[in-house]
Amino acid sequence: MATATERLAEALPGGGELAWRAPGRANLIGEHTDYNDGFVLPVALDLATYIAGSRHPGSLRLRSLDQAGEVVVDLTTGQGPDSGWGRYVAGVVKAMLDDGVELAGFDGIVASDIPIGSGLSSSAALEVAVASAIAIHPLEPLRQALICRRAENIYVGVQTGIMDQLASAAAKKDHALLIDCRDNTIDPVPMPSGLEILVVDSGASRDLGSSAYNERRKECELAAEAMGLGSLRDADLERLESARRDMPDGAYRRARHIVTENQRVLEAADALRRSDLEALGSLFERSYRSYADDFEASTPEIETLVSVAAATDGVVAARLTGGGWGGCTVNLVRGHQGGRAATGIAERYEAATGITARWWISSASGGVRPVATG
What we know:
There is one protein chain. 40% of the residues lie in helices and 23% in strands. The protein is of the alpha+beta class. The chain has 2 domains: 4-189, Ribosomal Protein S5, domain 2 (2-Layer Sandwich); 196-362, GHMP kinase, C-terminal domain (Alpha-Beta Plaits, 2-Layer Sandwich). A hairpin with a 6-residue loop joins strand 9 and strand 10. Helix 3 (122-134) crosses helix 5 (163-170) and helix 10 crosses helix 11. It is globular, with a radius of gyration of 20 Å.
Protein backbone atom coordinates (compact mmCIF):
# COMPACT_ATOMS: atom_id res chain seq x y z
CA MET A 1 0.00 0.00 0.00
CA ALA A 2 1.33 3.43 -0.97
CA THR A 3 2.34 5.76 1.84
CA ALA A 4 0.66 9.10 2.43
CA THR A 5 3.65 10.95 0.95
CA GLU A 6 3.62 8.74 -2.16
CA ARG A 7 -0.09 9.34 -2.67
CA LEU A 8 0.36 13.08 -2.18
CA ALA A 9 3.17 13.14 -4.74
CA GLU A 10 0.87 11.41 -7.24
CA ALA A 11 -2.02 13.80 -6.52
CA LEU A 12 0.26 16.88 -6.72
CA PRO A 13 2.81 15.99 -9.41
CA GLY A 14 4.48 19.39 -9.24
CA GLY A 15 4.41 19.49 -5.47
CA GLY A 16 2.55 22.04 -3.39
CA GLU A 17 4.06 25.36 -2.38
CA LEU A 18 3.65 24.47 1.29
CA ALA A 19 3.40 21.19 3.22
CA TRP A 20 3.31 20.01 6.81
CA ARG A 21 3.56 16.70 8.63
CA ALA A 22 1.70 16.13 11.94
CA PRO A 23 2.25 12.77 13.65
CA GLY A 24 -0.18 10.45 15.32
CA ARG A 25 0.64 9.17 18.75
CA ALA A 26 0.61 6.05 20.88
CA ASN A 27 0.13 6.57 24.57
CA LEU A 28 2.57 4.30 26.34
CA ILE A 29 0.68 4.59 29.62
CA GLY A 30 -1.83 6.89 31.28
CA GLU A 31 -5.32 6.37 29.88
CA HIS A 32 -8.08 8.91 30.62
CA THR A 33 -5.78 10.61 33.12
CA ASP A 34 -5.34 13.71 30.94
CA TYR A 35 -8.77 15.24 31.48
CA ASN A 36 -8.44 14.37 35.19
CA ASP A 37 -5.45 16.74 35.50
CA GLY A 38 -3.12 13.75 35.71
CA PHE A 39 -0.03 12.43 33.95
CA VAL A 40 0.38 10.79 30.54
CA LEU A 41 3.35 9.35 28.66
CA PRO A 42 2.76 9.38 24.88
CA VAL A 43 5.17 9.00 21.97
CA ALA A 44 4.63 10.51 18.55
CA LEU A 45 4.73 7.93 15.76
CA ASP A 46 6.19 7.69 12.28
CA LEU A 47 2.54 7.43 11.15
CA ALA A 48 1.42 10.95 10.27
CA THR A 49 -1.07 13.20 8.51
CA TYR A 50 0.24 15.40 5.69
CA ILE A 51 -1.27 18.53 4.22
CA ALA A 52 0.12 20.13 1.07
CA GLY A 53 -1.02 22.90 -1.23
CA SER A 54 -0.83 26.63 -1.83
CA ARG A 55 -2.21 29.87 -0.50
CA HIS A 56 -5.82 30.66 -1.45
CA PRO A 57 -7.28 34.07 -0.51
CA GLY A 58 -10.19 34.14 1.92
CA SER A 59 -10.97 30.49 2.48
CA LEU A 60 -9.67 27.07 3.35
CA ARG A 61 -10.35 24.41 0.74
CA LEU A 62 -9.23 20.84 1.34
CA ARG A 63 -9.63 17.49 -0.39
CA SER A 64 -8.77 14.24 1.36
CA LEU A 65 -7.19 11.22 -0.30
CA ASP A 66 -8.61 9.05 2.49
CA GLN A 67 -12.14 10.32 3.09
CA ALA A 68 -14.92 11.47 0.80
CA GLY A 69 -15.86 15.03 0.05
CA GLU A 70 -14.28 18.44 -0.33
CA VAL A 71 -14.19 20.74 2.70
CA VAL A 72 -14.52 24.50 2.35
CA VAL A 73 -14.36 26.79 5.38
CA ASP A 74 -14.78 30.58 5.48
CA LEU A 75 -11.77 31.99 7.34
CA THR A 76 -13.61 35.08 8.55
CA THR A 77 -16.56 33.27 10.18
CA GLY A 78 -15.45 29.65 10.52
CA GLN A 79 -18.56 28.58 8.64
CA GLY A 80 -18.08 25.10 7.21
CA PRO A 81 -19.21 21.47 7.51
CA ASP A 82 -20.79 20.27 10.75
CA SER A 83 -20.37 16.56 10.01
CA GLY A 84 -17.74 14.13 8.78
CA TRP A 85 -14.04 14.96 8.74
CA GLY A 86 -14.85 18.51 7.73
CA ARG A 87 -16.22 19.32 11.19
CA TYR A 88 -12.71 18.92 12.63
CA VAL A 89 -11.34 21.33 10.03
CA ALA A 90 -14.08 23.89 10.63
CA GLY A 91 -13.62 23.48 14.38
CA VAL A 92 -9.93 24.36 14.10
CA VAL A 93 -10.72 27.50 12.13
CA LYS A 94 -13.33 28.59 14.70
CA ALA A 95 -10.98 27.89 17.62
CA MET A 96 -8.17 29.85 15.94
CA LEU A 97 -10.52 32.78 15.36
CA ASP A 98 -11.55 32.58 19.03
CA ASP A 99 -7.86 32.83 19.98
CA GLY A 100 -7.13 35.77 17.71
CA VAL A 101 -4.79 33.91 15.36
CA GLU A 102 -4.12 35.57 12.01
CA LEU A 103 -5.20 33.17 9.26
CA ALA A 104 -4.09 32.68 5.67
CA GLY A 105 -6.20 31.00 3.01
CA PHE A 106 -5.10 27.59 1.79
CA ASP A 107 -6.06 25.24 -1.02
CA GLY A 108 -4.68 21.76 -0.60
CA ILE A 109 -4.84 18.03 -0.15
CA VAL A 110 -4.74 15.89 2.99
CA ALA A 111 -3.36 12.35 3.17
CA SER A 112 -2.67 10.23 6.21
CA ASP A 113 -0.94 7.03 7.24
CA ILE A 114 -2.85 7.00 10.56
CA PRO A 115 -5.70 4.48 10.61
CA ILE A 116 -8.96 6.24 11.47
CA GLY A 117 -10.74 5.08 14.60
CA SER A 118 -7.82 3.08 15.95
CA GLY A 119 -6.88 5.19 18.95
CA LEU A 120 -3.74 6.73 17.39
CA SER A 121 -5.08 10.28 17.32
CA SER A 122 -5.87 10.70 13.65
CA SER A 123 -8.22 13.57 14.51
CA ALA A 124 -5.59 15.43 16.57
CA ALA A 125 -3.01 15.04 13.79
CA LEU A 126 -5.50 16.47 11.29
CA GLU A 127 -6.25 19.39 13.60
CA VAL A 128 -2.57 20.18 14.19
CA ALA A 129 -1.75 19.91 10.49
CA VAL A 130 -4.60 22.24 9.54
CA ALA A 131 -3.62 24.79 12.19
CA SER A 132 -0.05 24.80 10.88
CA ALA A 133 -1.22 25.30 7.30
CA ILE A 134 -3.43 28.32 7.91
CA ALA A 135 -1.55 30.20 10.66
CA ILE A 136 0.26 33.20 9.16
CA HIS A 137 2.84 33.04 11.94
CA PRO A 138 4.06 29.72 13.41
CA LEU A 139 2.27 28.83 16.63
CA GLU A 140 4.04 27.94 19.87
CA PRO A 141 3.38 24.19 20.44
CA LEU A 142 1.34 24.53 23.64
CA ARG A 143 -0.82 27.29 22.19
CA GLN A 144 -1.40 25.22 19.07
CA ALA A 145 -2.36 22.18 21.14
CA LEU A 146 -4.77 24.17 23.31
CA ILE A 147 -6.45 25.65 20.22
CA CYS A 148 -6.85 22.23 18.65
CA ARG A 149 -8.20 20.74 21.87
CA ARG A 150 -10.76 23.53 22.02
CA ALA A 151 -11.77 22.68 18.46
CA GLU A 152 -12.46 19.08 19.43
CA ASN A 153 -14.09 19.87 22.79
CA ILE A 154 -16.31 22.78 21.77
CA TYR A 155 -16.94 22.37 18.07
CA VAL A 156 -16.78 18.59 17.58
CA GLY A 157 -18.18 17.70 21.00
CA VAL A 158 -15.62 15.13 22.15
CA GLN A 159 -14.26 15.90 25.62
CA THR A 160 -10.65 14.88 25.09
CA GLY A 161 -7.82 16.16 27.24
CA ILE A 162 -4.68 17.88 25.99
CA MET A 163 -2.51 14.81 25.37
CA ASP A 164 -3.30 13.99 21.74
CA GLN A 165 -2.84 17.48 20.38
CA LEU A 166 0.20 18.25 22.54
CA ALA A 167 1.96 15.03 21.50
CA SER A 168 1.42 15.89 17.83
CA ALA A 169 2.52 19.50 18.27
CA ALA A 170 5.43 19.17 20.70
CA ALA A 171 6.95 15.69 20.53
CA LYS A 172 10.72 15.26 20.55
CA LYS A 173 12.40 12.64 18.38
CA ASP A 174 13.59 9.51 20.23
CA HIS A 175 11.73 10.59 23.37
CA ALA A 176 8.45 9.95 25.09
CA LEU A 177 6.69 13.00 26.56
CA LEU A 178 5.83 12.99 30.24
CA ILE A 179 3.00 15.51 30.31
CA ASP A 180 1.56 17.01 33.47
CA CYS A 181 -1.97 17.75 32.31
CA ARG A 182 -2.67 20.11 35.21
CA ASP A 183 -0.18 22.75 34.13
CA ASN A 184 0.59 21.35 30.65
CA THR A 185 4.32 21.08 31.32
CA ILE A 186 6.38 18.62 29.29
CA ASP A 187 9.36 16.52 30.32
CA PRO A 188 10.94 14.62 27.38
CA VAL A 189 12.01 11.14 28.50
CA PRO A 190 14.63 9.31 26.38
CA MET A 191 13.49 6.01 24.93
CA PRO A 192 15.88 3.11 25.65
CA SER A 193 18.26 2.46 22.78
CA GLY A 194 17.18 -0.35 20.46
CA LEU A 195 13.60 -0.54 21.73
CA GLU A 196 11.02 -0.69 18.92
CA ILE A 197 7.44 0.52 19.16
CA LEU A 198 5.03 -1.98 17.62
CA VAL A 199 1.45 -0.83 17.09
CA VAL A 200 -1.11 -3.52 16.23
CA ASP A 201 -4.61 -2.62 15.05
CA SER A 202 -7.23 -4.98 16.46
CA GLY A 203 -9.62 -4.29 13.58
CA ALA A 204 -12.31 -3.35 16.11
CA SER A 205 -13.21 0.19 15.09
CA ARG A 206 -14.20 2.94 17.49
CA ASP A 207 -15.79 6.39 17.37
CA LEU A 208 -15.32 8.60 20.42
CA GLY A 209 -18.34 10.68 19.49
CA SER A 210 -20.71 7.73 19.91
CA SER A 211 -18.76 5.65 22.42
CA ALA A 212 -18.67 5.61 26.21
CA TYR A 213 -15.80 8.13 26.29
CA ASN A 214 -17.88 11.09 27.41
CA GLU A 215 -19.79 8.90 29.88
CA ARG A 216 -16.51 7.88 31.52
CA ARG A 217 -15.51 11.50 31.85
CA LYS A 218 -18.78 12.29 33.64
CA GLU A 219 -18.22 9.35 36.01
CA CYS A 220 -14.76 10.67 36.86
CA GLU A 221 -16.19 14.10 37.58
CA LEU A 222 -18.87 12.53 39.78
CA ALA A 223 -16.25 10.65 41.78
CA ALA A 224 -14.15 13.79 42.27
CA GLU A 225 -17.23 15.73 43.40
CA ALA A 226 -18.13 13.00 45.90
CA MET A 227 -14.68 13.43 47.46
CA GLY A 228 -14.94 17.21 47.46
CA LEU A 229 -12.15 17.57 44.90
CA GLY A 230 -11.77 19.62 41.76
CA SER A 231 -10.22 16.68 39.92
CA LEU A 232 -9.07 13.12 40.52
CA ARG A 233 -5.44 14.32 40.36
CA ASP A 234 -5.76 15.20 44.05
CA ALA A 235 -7.29 11.88 45.12
CA ASP A 236 -5.49 8.98 46.76
CA LEU A 237 -6.72 5.47 47.50
CA GLU A 238 -7.39 6.20 51.18
CA ARG A 239 -9.62 9.16 50.35
CA LEU A 240 -11.35 7.22 47.60
CA GLU A 241 -12.14 4.32 49.92
CA SER A 242 -13.54 6.63 52.59
CA ALA A 243 -15.93 8.17 50.04
CA ARG A 244 -16.89 4.91 48.34
CA ARG A 245 -20.45 4.90 49.74
CA ASP A 246 -21.03 8.41 48.39
CA MET A 247 -20.72 7.44 44.73
CA PRO A 248 -22.02 4.74 42.38
CA ASP A 249 -19.85 1.66 42.07
CA GLY A 250 -19.02 2.52 38.45
CA ALA A 251 -17.70 5.94 39.41
CA TYR A 252 -15.66 4.39 42.23
CA ARG A 253 -13.97 1.94 39.88
CA ARG A 254 -13.28 4.59 37.24
CA ALA A 255 -11.65 6.72 39.93
CA ARG A 256 -9.60 3.79 41.23
CA HIS A 257 -8.18 3.34 37.73
CA ILE A 258 -7.25 7.02 37.49
CA VAL A 259 -5.60 7.18 40.91
CA THR A 260 -3.49 4.08 40.35
CA GLU A 261 -2.75 4.94 36.71
CA ASN A 262 -1.25 8.30 37.62
CA GLN A 263 1.28 6.56 39.83
CA ARG A 264 2.06 4.01 37.12
CA VAL A 265 2.81 6.81 34.63
CA LEU A 266 5.42 8.32 36.92
CA GLU A 267 6.95 4.91 37.57
CA ALA A 268 7.02 4.14 33.84
CA ALA A 269 8.85 7.39 33.06
CA ASP A 270 11.43 6.47 35.68
CA ALA A 271 11.74 2.95 34.23
CA LEU A 272 12.37 4.42 30.76
CA ARG A 273 15.11 6.65 32.12
CA ARG A 274 16.75 3.60 33.74
CA SER A 275 16.09 1.35 30.69
CA ASP A 276 14.39 -1.04 33.12
CA LEU A 277 12.46 -3.18 30.65
CA GLU A 278 11.25 -5.65 33.27
CA ALA A 279 9.63 -2.85 35.25
CA LEU A 280 8.01 -1.50 32.07
CA GLY A 281 6.51 -4.89 31.32
CA SER A 282 4.98 -5.12 34.78
CA LEU A 283 3.61 -1.57 34.62
CA PHE A 284 2.03 -2.16 31.20
CA GLU A 285 0.38 -5.34 32.46
CA ARG A 286 -1.04 -3.68 35.57
CA SER A 287 -2.18 -0.68 33.54
CA TYR A 288 -4.04 -2.86 31.06
CA ARG A 289 -5.77 -4.87 33.76
CA SER A 290 -6.93 -1.68 35.45
CA TYR A 291 -8.11 -0.25 32.12
CA ALA A 292 -10.00 -3.42 31.26
CA ASP A 293 -11.42 -4.26 34.69
CA ASP A 294 -11.95 -0.96 36.52
CA PHE A 295 -12.46 1.37 33.55
CA GLU A 296 -14.15 -1.32 31.45
CA ALA A 297 -12.67 0.05 28.24
CA SER A 298 -11.44 -3.14 26.59
CA THR A 299 -13.06 -5.61 24.19
CA PRO A 300 -12.75 -9.38 23.66
CA GLU A 301 -10.58 -8.73 20.61
CA ILE A 302 -8.20 -6.49 22.56
CA GLU A 303 -8.04 -9.01 25.39
CA THR A 304 -6.93 -11.64 22.90
CA LEU A 305 -4.44 -9.33 21.23
CA VAL A 306 -2.78 -8.30 24.50
CA SER A 307 -2.57 -11.93 25.67
CA VAL A 308 -1.03 -13.08 22.40
CA ALA A 309 1.52 -10.27 22.44
CA ALA A 310 2.52 -10.89 26.04
CA ALA A 311 3.39 -14.48 25.14
CA THR A 312 5.47 -13.51 22.07
CA ASP A 313 9.27 -13.64 22.11
CA GLY A 314 10.89 -10.23 22.08
CA VAL A 315 7.85 -8.36 23.40
CA VAL A 316 8.78 -6.48 26.56
CA ALA A 317 5.40 -4.87 27.24
CA ALA A 318 1.91 -4.83 25.74
CA ARG A 319 -1.31 -2.95 26.47
CA LEU A 320 -4.32 -1.23 24.91
CA THR A 321 -3.58 2.37 23.92
CA GLY A 322 -5.93 5.25 23.28
CA GLY A 323 -9.49 6.05 24.28
CA GLY A 324 -10.57 2.42 24.52
CA TRP A 325 -13.28 0.08 23.20
CA GLY A 326 -11.20 -1.26 20.35
CA GLY A 327 -8.39 0.30 18.42
CA CYS A 328 -4.74 -0.59 18.83
CA THR A 329 -2.32 -2.13 21.25
CA VAL A 330 1.09 -0.60 21.86
CA ASN A 331 3.93 -3.04 22.32
CA LEU A 332 7.56 -2.44 23.22
CA VAL A 333 9.85 -4.91 21.46
CA ARG A 334 13.54 -5.58 21.85
CA GLY A 335 15.64 -4.19 18.99
CA HIS A 336 15.32 -5.71 15.51
CA GLN A 337 12.68 -8.24 16.64
CA GLY A 338 9.65 -6.11 15.79
CA GLY A 339 8.90 -7.64 12.38
CA ARG A 340 9.12 -11.20 13.58
CA ALA A 341 7.06 -10.42 16.70
CA ALA A 342 4.40 -8.61 14.65
CA THR A 343 4.05 -11.50 12.21
CA GLY A 344 3.65 -13.99 15.05
CA ILE A 345 1.12 -11.83 16.87
CA ALA A 346 -0.93 -11.25 13.72
CA GLU A 347 -0.99 -14.96 12.84
CA ARG A 348 -2.13 -16.08 16.29
CA TYR A 349 -4.64 -13.25 16.57
CA GLU A 350 -6.23 -14.16 13.24
CA ALA A 351 -6.38 -17.82 14.22
CA ALA A 352 -8.21 -16.89 17.43
CA THR A 353 -10.56 -14.20 16.09
CA GLY A 354 -10.72 -14.48 12.31
CA ILE A 355 -9.58 -10.84 12.06
CA THR A 356 -6.55 -9.83 10.02
CA ALA A 357 -4.58 -7.35 12.11
CA ARG A 358 -2.59 -4.51 10.59
CA TRP A 359 0.63 -3.50 12.30
CA TRP A 360 3.33 -0.85 12.15
CA ILE A 361 6.83 -0.62 13.60
CA SER A 362 7.75 2.89 14.63
CA SER A 363 10.38 4.94 16.32
CA ALA A 364 9.55 7.87 18.60
CA SER A 365 8.97 10.71 16.14
CA GLY A 366 9.20 14.49 16.44
CA GLY A 367 6.19 16.82 16.41
CA VAL A 368 4.58 18.78 13.58
CA ARG A 369 6.97 20.31 11.09
CA PRO A 370 7.10 21.69 7.54
CA VAL A 371 8.25 19.17 4.95
CA ALA A 372 9.59 19.33 1.43
CA THR A 373 7.11 19.02 -1.42
CA GLY A 374 7.44 17.59 -4.88
